[in-house]
Amino acid sequence: MKKESGSSRRGFLGGGLAAGTALVAGAAQAGETLITERQSWASNLGAGVDESPYGQPSEHEADVIRRSVSWLTADPISSVNFTPIHALDGIITPNGLCFERHHGGVAQIAPADYRLMIHGLVDNPLVFTIDDLKRFPRYNKVYFLECAANSGMEWRGAQLNGAQFTHGMIHNVMYTGVMLRDVLAEAGVQTEGKWLLAEGGDASGMSRSIPMDKALDDCMIAFKMNGEALRPEQGYPARLVVPGWEGNMWIKWLRRLEVGDAAWYQREETSKYTDLLPDGRAREFTWAMDAKSVITSPSPQAPITHGAGPLVITGLAWSGHGTIPRVDVTIDGGITWAEARMDGPSFDKSMHRFYLDINWDGSPMLLQSRAHDSTGYVQPTKDQLRAIRGVESIYHNNGIQTWSVAANGEVENVEIS
Ligand code: MTE
Ligand code: CO
């Protein structure tokens, strides 16, 4: 920040800023002892290299952790925790902060004990080791994974106070892996083979039916995330990547692929992950995750602490159908909308980062964001969703989220649509 002489900028900021100015630092002045006096960290030598062979975040970031909601599930073995999206920026989720969803706990599998079987309607049933898989051509792709239950608690109204809890069943990492079509080609899929069953090697034996068209299109078997091996909680040593589709289909600890001529109708595609409609019928096979967005800061866990003046409003947007060319943001509960500034890479079926840089006058705000995806689809309000889907749904809630910001900067989860 350029040094300014004259009156204190802090005093100036306190009095409010004219639109267009963006002065955010205090003037250099006597009494800034953090600058004028030698501090402890500069008076002694610091820790040497190798202090931490696998690096850890600063102790001052100890709050940036996955968190769960105690009343949501009966037991942590079949439970979920949430990515602290309110504290992150950019589009990549650090590996240690990716939310976890397990139905039978984390399977601990040594790479030497890992096997993947392909059978059913194939010419050559095969069993692969992890080293076999790594000999197929490798690809790198950034994709979001959103649990279909993300925001499920918010169907009937505002409930959980924090973006971490309302929208944190999502992560976005760069996967390194092999194309499922290459692996399937090795086994030789027969012409009647229109479906694929993917089964996990964990105690839950999680299994899902995937149409062959999707399997042959962009699905991957991944063994790396953000450059390093998958974490055990993300399916080490290998998981299925099903771009843009509900997280439940991304089978972890992948052990079996069966080719068949019809869907299997497993538990996770009948009693779970289907959406009960007002007339008593249920939507089956709601695979692709529709466009959605959320303001991550300010938000209940990330209140405004600096008072009026320059304020960075930021959030995430994503679509299972493509990219996000545009996000609108309102600060007055939808009366007026401004187009946010997209920043960072725009990848297909990946999270996108948006910003709206405003000069906050210190009065209360009702913040919302509205995503537009590359197909032209616009994120609906919760009322628009409920008009079609009723109030019995849990899964696939992509409605617009509202945060109420008070004059003191505190933020609360509310609903106005
Ligand atoms: N795969 C297996 N084998 N076991 C599981 O419990 N949970 C599914 C899916 N794959 C699950 C699984 C669900 S519901 C989701 S949302 C994602 O994994 C969560 O992936 P993550 O734990 O990497 O966030
Ligand atoms: Co899930």
Plain-language structure description:
By secondary structure, the chain is mainly beta. 11% of the residues lie in helices and 28% in strands. The chain has eight helices and 23 strands. The protein has helices at residues 9-14, 33-36, 40-43, 130-133, 163-167, 180-187, 212-217, 382-389, and strands at residues 79-80, 101-102, 116-120, 126-128, 138-146, 170-179, 195-200, 207-211, 220-225, 228-229, 239-241, 254-260, 275-276, 282-283, 292-297, 309-318, 326-330, 338-339, 341-343, 352-360, 365-372, 402-405, 411-414. Strands 4-3-12-7-8 form a five-stranded mixed sheet. A hairpin with a 5-residue loop joins β13 and β14 (282-283). The site of cobalt (II) ion (CO) has 6 residues, from loops.
Radius of gyration: 24 Å
How far do the termini sit from each other?
41 Å
The residue-averaged pLDDT reads 93
**Main sheet summary:** 5 strands, mixed
Are there runs of 5+ residues with pLDDT below 50, and where?
1-21
Strand content: 25-35%
Q: Going across the major beta sheet, what is the strand order?
A: 4-3-12-7-8
Work out the helix count: 8
Number of strands: 23
Secondary-structure content class: mainly beta
Ligands (ions, cofactors included): ligand MTE, cobalt (II) ion
Helicity, in percent? 10-25%
